[in-house]
Amino acid sequence: MKIVSIHKDMSSEPKYRHIYELLRERILQLPPGERLETVRSLQKNYGVSLATVNSALRLLTEEGLIESVRKQGIFRAGGPGEAVRRPVILILPGRDEPLFRRIIFSCYEALEARNMRLQFMIHKLVPNAELETVIRAFDEKPAGILYMPTQVSARLKQVLREGCGHTPLVQLNRETGAAEVSFVGTRCHEASRKATARLVECGHRRIGLIMPKDSSSFLDQQERIAGFLAALKQGGISHRNAYDIIFDPSDRRLASDVIELLSGEERPTAFFATNSSYLPELFRKVKFCGLKIPDDLSVTCVDIADTFRELPVPLDRLEQPIAEICGRAVELLYEMIISHDLRPRRELLDGISCIGNSCGPPPRTGMSLPGSTLCLSKQ
Question: Which is an annotated GO molecular function term of this record (predicted)?
Fold first, then answer.
């Protein structure tokens, strides 16, 4: 928003001086960084000409009470002016999934409330694409970076450590484990322990784990696995790797031999999934094997609410509060930007326990009768 300068001594013009005093009194009541109405709105509200409004605004600018930011508006001075001028970059994989959509909308709303702009950087799920995107984001010198890691390498961790020394960055939902990098997410250990304990309480003893093959790269995934194992231990159950399904996040059809696992006489009667990515594929395999959920197989999971809405089964699960996670991440990033304090922050929020229709007692026999079909819900 450009403020037009009119070189005129306002002290001799009572009309201009009156508008200046009114605007000055109002602006002094605003917190630093707060956006003022547009020049046109001010003209309409005060019933004066554009020249009068612009003259008053020029004096207020010279006085250091307001600042004009191109394409953004007029702001009460003293706030994060430089941050307003530069965007916040959000780095995500280039996939149309409920999780990514929710992150985008939640971050946009939280940033807009602070008069900050959002810029996307999308990367492919191929080697080095994510690393190159993160490097490019730091090179653009944004106000800050919001980032959900997906494919982590030692080199990427090093880039994050170095970049966080000069650019505010907060990880969302997934954590690389680098202590120097700020993170906001879910209390994954406790969420996973509770979700798995639900299966144990139903009487299951043969419980498998569903996880992506890159789980070791993310601290939050490791915490989910640890929570799963803790629930088994509390229930006096030994974990058997043979019950587990390990899938490829880039192609979920590539997994351990699930058909063989589900068809065996000593198959698992329940699964805990560290996220919902593989569940649609699991449901197809379950149907192919002639099993019923939850009569023959029970499932629990930790993920965001949006992903569960797209599943054919009302799942027993622990939902991640992703909107709250994004909002808090933006809040922390904003604090880092205006304070120039880049010390890492780490905050964990509680998941929300939801009862569905995917958990029941283990079947009395290892397999369903031939020809049985998948029961997606009990209406």
Answer: transcription cis-regulatory region binding
* Residue 39 placed within a domain: yes
Cα separation, 33 vs 74, whole angstroms: 9
DSSP 173: S
66 close to 56: Cβ distance less than 8 angstroms? no
Q: Quick one: 332 and 299 in the same domain?
A: no
Residue 298's domain comprises 188-319
Give the Cα-Cα-Cα angle 123, 126, 127 (nearest 5 degrees). 110
| 175 secondary structure, DSSP code | -
**Tens-digit pLDDT profile for residues 278-322:** 999 999 999 999 999 999 999 999 888 888 887 888 888 889 899
Q: For residue 347, tell me if it sits in a domain.
A: yes
For the stretch 254-276, pLDDT in tens is 666 899 999 988 999 999 999 88
* 349 sits in which H/E element: strand 346-349
Distance CA 321, CA 315 (A): 16
**Token representation of residue 49:** 């000409």
Domain count, the chain: 3
Same domain, 233 and 282: yes
Of 104, 130, 330, the residue nearest 218 (C-alpha): 130
pLDDT for residue 5 = 41
CA angle 65–14–3, rounded 5-degree value: 40
